[in-house]
Structures are given as structure tokens and as C-alpha cells.
Amino acid sequence: MNRIIDFTDQTKSVSIKNRQLIIEEVDGKRHSIPTEEVAAAIFSGYCINITKSVIELLSECGASIIVCDKSKMPVGMMVPISGHHLQSRFVKEQAEATLPTLKRLWKQIVSAKIKGQAQNLLAIYQEDFALGKMAALVKLGDETNIEGRAARRYWSKLFRVPKFTRDCDGEDVINSSLNYGYAILRSLVARAIVSSGLNPSLGLFHHNKYNAFCLADDLMEPYRPVVDNIVWHLYDSDQLSEGITTGVKRALIEAISSRYIISDRQETIFEAATRTTSSLVSVFCGQKKELCLPKRLPLIAREITEATADAH
Predict the structure, then answer these.
(1) What is the CATH number of the domain that holds 25?
(2) I need a surface site. Which of 19, 103, 147, 274 has the fewest CB within 10 A?
């Protein structure tokens, strides 16, 4: 179960037959995909006909479902309600986690995120601009806001675009590409959270009564630099000039699907995120002190950006 499927404007309809997704294209071609192989289904096409059984079976198989608006940007996400037979017990432990525990976990997450950002800068510019040192300065709960200070330095060095500001609502091509990639990443982390028996709305650091995925926003932080890396490559090779094309989306999906180093093993995002969420369960249950977080993120291979250029 490791495929991210994007149903674009070339898709006319999606239905179910014998537990297979039956996809009919606008040109009349038909093909099928085993539902059990789908980790995330992205409905970016604007006039796709789907049946209730598609949503029902995808949810039953544990897939996350992402819906896009007219501009092809994700606006909605759905994950399965239940994913573990001990869910009620784990959610109780999650809800009763102490403040010192939450602060210790947030320190680990922020430090891992900054290390990933440093890795990006080092790979691109052969210098991490002291982000590696900043990662070691993070305190419990990041009380001195090293994350924010590192972010300001990181974004100013990464793209080197005059007046560029990282904006989750930004409509420029860089921010839009980042937001698209983050939305996919968020859905996969949310799915891993549910499969581990936790509640995605009970966050460690993020708290918002209107946000049903606060914990996903927390745990995806160390994985964000993967999206940053591919967006930089696409921008640097002038492949974002036409916006978020099919090729750009394909490159983002391939990058997120790359292999990560976690606990000294190479794993896909699906395996890595589940290992992270499972380790969080162990922390909540008093069995561990540390989260399993990626030690090394995948650097984007030349083949991905070349394939993107071919898809334009």
C-alpha cells in the first residue's frame, strides 16, 4: 500500500469492481488499480464522476482522500475513522500526556526539522549557514523559538529570491508548489497517525479548535524539507514557469515517495511515518523517551527533474 494516485482532468470517472478502482479517461481508455495499493487518492480534476463505493472502499483500506479546488490546490482531506484495535486506550494515553512530555517531544521534532533544512542547504550550497548548530540549541518546548529563527535564515538562503516570504496562503508559484507538496505529506502523516491508534486532532504543539489534524501538522515537520528540496530543484531548472503542471505534481509525488533513513534503515514515507507515529504511542505509554525521526532525508535525483521536464 504505497501508491499516491492523482486523478486529473484526464480522468472522466472512477468506480469500483471486484475491489479494483476502475478508471475511465476522457479519451475512452480504461484501466484498473487494486484498492489495497493506494495510500492516497488525490482528486484534482474538476469534473470527475465517482461513486460512493470508491470513497467507502478507499477509507476501508486505510487510504487518505484529498480533494482539490478549481486551481488544483488541495482544500479538503479525509482519513479513516479507526485504524487500530487499541485505539481507545492509546487516545486516552495521548490525551493524558504531561506537559513535560509534550515539551520534550516538540524539542525532538524541531531539532530534526532544522537538521533536514541544514541538509538541504549543505547539498545545494555546500554550506548549512549554521543551521546545524542551531538544531543543537533547541530547548524543551523550543521556548527560545529556534524554529522561527532558523526558518527566517533558511528561507532567505534556500531560494534567494528577492522579497520571497514563506506563506501558507501565498499564490506565487514557489509557495503554491510548497503548499501542494505539504498537503500530500500532511495527508500521509495523518493516515499513519490513525493507523497507529492516535487521534490526529490532539496535537503536541499545534492547537486550534478548527483544525482536525493538529498532530499531523506536528509530526510532518521533520519531513517538510523533502518538499522544499524538490521545489528548489524545479524552480532552479525553470520548471515552475507554467505553474503547477502535471509534471510538477508528478515530481512532488515522486519526491515524497522516495526512501528515508530512519533508525538506520531505508524506508518509504509510508513506513517512516508509521514508525514515527508508532514510536509516539510508545512514548505516551511510558515505554520510550525518544521519537523515531528521519536521520537523513532523500535528496532529489536528477532523474526526477528530468522526467518532470519531459512531462511539460
Answers:
(1) 3.100.10.20
(2) 19
